[in-house]
């Protein structure tokens, strides 16, 4: 596995270099398209970075499957699969808001588990990583979740979908959660929200509607930092709900999110 983790680090750095080359200097110009709604953007840089990642993976690991945000499934039949988000936090990237990342996870399809993950915070130049059973790190320094035990004293991250009706329910939910926690943060990149839980910058995070490429790498980094990652009603994180915490506040946060999702007709 070391070879795939080493490769993931190198691929993330190459993606960072491409991103920075396209936004540095006076000629910063992005071609921006929209996908599922006018708020769901994708740029030519997203596509260029994913193309770079896919070509690199195919070159080095021809049998591995590839699941990417922009180009979908490709590559070989496995048993390993690379789950890649070339720029997680695309809206932030388009605006220059400093919270977007290259996110790369490697899955063992036979064991249905993530074996390693890398999240490269491009604006802050921080490389988060984890391999199963070997701990979580940022720039080579070991990280761990907080030990805060009360939801009322916890800093909680969340995010919102692209569809207006989905946001209506998510906004209603967060308005009821806000008075029950220390505060809410909305960074705009799930992979970074998860890494902030892993390194103690957040005590917990929840979001519905995420794709595998949004959360797969960040999830193993949280788990290897001593945290807990689940769904809401379902045990596994997924499109319905992803909840990541320091483990101590997990049950109360999960119960609150599931009950409010039912109240407002949101997925959990
Ligand atoms: C983003 C997620 C974020 C969510 C945004 C968006 P993208 O992913 O990382 O947590 O709130 O709506 O889905 O689309 O920038 O790769």
Task: Record keyword descriptors for this entry.
268 residues, alpha+beta, Fructose-1,6-Bisphosphatase, Chain A, domain 1, D-Maltodextrin-Binding Protein, domain 2, eight-stranded mixed sheet, 26% strand, binds L-MYO-inositol-1-phosphate
Description of the molecule:
The chain is of the alpha+beta class and 268 residues long. It folds into two domains: 2-142, Fructose-1,6-Bisphosphatase, subunit A, domain 1 (Fructose-1,6-Bisphosphatase, Chain A, domain 1, 2-Layer Sandwich), CATH 3.30.540.10; 151-264, D-Maltodextrin-Binding Protein, domain 2 (3-Layer(aba) Sandwich), CATH 3.40.190. The longest helix is centred in the first third of the chain and has 22 residues, at 2-23. It contains seven helices and 15 strands. The protein has helices at residues 2-23, 44-60, 90-95, 164-177, 190-198, 212-224, 250-264, and strands at 32-34, 41-43, 65-68, 72-75, 80-88, 101-108, 113-121, 126-131, 136-138, 141-142, 155-158, 183-185, 204-207, 228-230, 242-245. It has an eight-stranded mixed sheet, sandwiched between helices. Strands 12-11-13-15-14 form a five-stranded mixed sheet, sandwiched between helices. The mean pLDDT is 94. Bound molecules: L-MYO-inositol-1-phosphate (LIP). L-MYO-inositol-1-phosphate is lined by residues 69, 85, 88-91, 159-162, 188-190, 207, 214. Residues 69, 85, 88-91, 159-162, 188-190, 207, 214 line the site of L-MYO-inositol-1-phosphate.
